[in-house]
Request: fold
Amino acid sequence: MMGEYILEMVDVVKEFPGVKALKGVDLKVRKGSIHALMGENGAGKSTLMKCLIGIHQMTSGKIIFKGQEVHIKGTSSALNMGISMIHQELTAVTERTVAENIWLGREPLKNRFMIDHKKMKDDTTELLERLHMDIDPDEIMANLTVAKMQMVEIAKAVSFNADIIIMDEPTSALTTKEVDHLFEIINSLKSKGVTIIYISHKMDEIFEICDEITVLRDGEFVGVDFASNLSIDKLISMMVGRELTEMFPKVECEIGETILKVENLSSGSAFSDVSFELKKGEILGFAGLVGAGRTEVVETIFGIRPKTGGKIYIKDKEVEIKEAYDALKHGIFLLTEDRKKQGIFPVLSVKDNMIVSNQENYVKKLSLDHKKIKSDTMEYIDKINVKTPSIETPIKSLSGGNQQKVLVARALLTEPEILIVDEPTRGIDVGAKAEIHTLITNLAAQGRAIIMISSEMPEVLGMSDRVVVMHEGRVTGIVNRSDITQEIVMRYATNSI
Reply:
């Protein structure tokens, strides 16, 4: 039976440099309940849980656990108290066995110094049998499917005998049968008095398994209620209920002929049968929740992910794009999702980062035309207001917003007819966001065709002429600007329409 609150997080604030991720959030969870934590991407759900598990330290606020205020200084502190977490990103040591992963850092010992491998295997076998998981304790993790790796992570969390288990998108890699199995495990844990905090974007799961639901939006607490008192409509309204602002300076552009057509495009298990058209002067938004497959689609169009089916047409002519160089030849440029890992070369200068994708345009008699390089880079620094001491400054010294502008300049220097921008304003300040939005709109007005992926719903709705919505690797809807609402997009994104 659910009882008193086992956990209270009170007025939690978490600030990162330049970003206030949590703005006085409250969370109260009853003992023995399954409590859903809901909100759009970026609402603060995972950040709040990382404060609870000790990965992040709160800027301010307090945590009351089992009636006592506690200070959680790290993950080991949380585990010792009885709080464990299954993370959205798998954390397996892939070259080690299932048993070694489950007991990592707390291996049973014999003679004080030697790992007792027999006991570790026996304990793992007992745990997996208790959870009805058909997994060999001696199997190397790298040989398992992603779904089975996720089940091992679940078994590891249960092995701590925690009072609270946090599950962050635990079914993202599971089949329907495996999800049913997970729910059996969760209900079994609940019957033993274990409390589950459950994060998911899947509405059907939330209403099937959860007792109460807390909703966050933009790092703020919106409300909490019993699941039985809520409907999908009410929950969606709580999650997305905010106004669009002048941050999105949409200019009506003349929409021209189709420049890109994708038919039944597939890439392994990442996505399948994706079809859409892109026209000159159009901003085509891509919306969807975590794991929907949006980034994988554009990576395939750009040639950095293999195509396993379907066709791509540029100006009504079928093309084969096997690598990024092919895409560039066809006038396509991709501004990648993660500027630190896939975008900037941190030790290189602003100038070198700008020209790296089209250096051949600056070759003059077997050497580089430094005069033209300087002229072009200075032109774009002025045009898009890049704040940098000089073009020779290492890009790592610039703010995130200015780094992003340099990458936009890199894209524009290739003079693409089709510009794909994946999360173009992630992690940058409000002023830089507005400047990049204006730049994208102006490019469309010049007849460029834009594909824009964003996890920020207002950005997608405020900037797009049409929106392609994906759910679990498939297109569930394409919505015209005149018909777009946040509720409609969320329904397609959760496959609830």
